Amino acid sequence: MAPQLAYLGIGLMGQAMTKNIVAKAELEKPLILWNRTQKRAEEHSSSIGHSTVVATVKEAVTKADIIWSCLQDQEAVTETFEEIFRMDIRGKLFLESSTVLPDVTNRIAKQIEEAGAEFVAMPVFGEPSLATIGKLICVPAGPTAAVARIKPYLIDVVAQAVVDLSGEEAGKASLLKIIGNVLIMTTMETCAEINVFAEKTGLGVENAQKLIDNFPHAAAHTIYSNKMLNGDYYQKEPMVEVHKARHLTSQVLDLAKENNVSLKSYKVAVEHLADVENSNGPKEDICGIYGTVRMESGLDFYNNGPKHDTKSEGKNGYEKVL
């Protein structure tokens, strides 16, 4: 008999991932959805079909065999699992895709296993637009047999690739996610600096973008650069709010310090994040580091909108990319 899946957390990533699970995973039973804001889950369920919404975590866990979670932050993960630990969860499999510290992941894994259930940590790499088209990179770690049970929902469903850490302790996946943040932030910093350099020298950001689009192994650069040039960093719902990003970057720097690692270019990106929060507010998008690099170079924080396809009006009188 096919397992019953439940998904906890319907943020931007959760929306994209559950849409693909319903469309591509050939579920026999409707996907169970839970979100702290129930209305959001109900609206999403109506849009993707073959799903049902429950009002409580307890109801989701009780009805499901595999419980997949991708929650807002570490605090939300901790609170949710504290509630789960009060239930009878024997025989269930928990798949956790939030970004949390390795020791928190290992602690949760230990408690889950002591309660007679299985746990796989599986953070993902890729922002919401990649999640929407099922092109995430998934990093599962935990018991080999448990990881095998969730693989049918990965490649060609939510993921384009899997970095398989089967047999490793769950916290190793979280550690790789934390370390991967260095790649993400330095990529954003590079894109911000290149585009400002191109604008200030008269080359033009459109020409710089042509190079970025065709540079070897530059998929991430293309994504972040487009978000910057199209004005997504101030016109759309934040991909990641800057105050949440700063919390994670402080953890990365703490880990680097503990291990006597120098991350000079990463620290520059972190400083620009701080500038975004201090001057534009904590709910600004992480790609706002483009705005701070612009300001350091004598330009306005806002770049006056998209440089490519424009379809509809956005806030502040700027055009917005659909």
UniProtKB/TrEMBL annotation:
Residues 306-322 have a biased composition (Basic and acidic residues). The keyword Oxidoreductase applies. Coiled coil: none annotated. The keyword Ribonucleoprotein does not apply. Pfam families: NAD_binding_2. It comes from Stereocaulon virgatum. Residues 302-322 are annotated as: Disordered. Belongs to the HIBADH-related family. NP60 subfamily. Keywords: Oxidoreductase. This is 6-phosphogluconate dehydrogenase NADP-binding domain-containing protein. Residues 5-158 form the 6-phosphogluconate dehydrogenase NADP-binding domain.
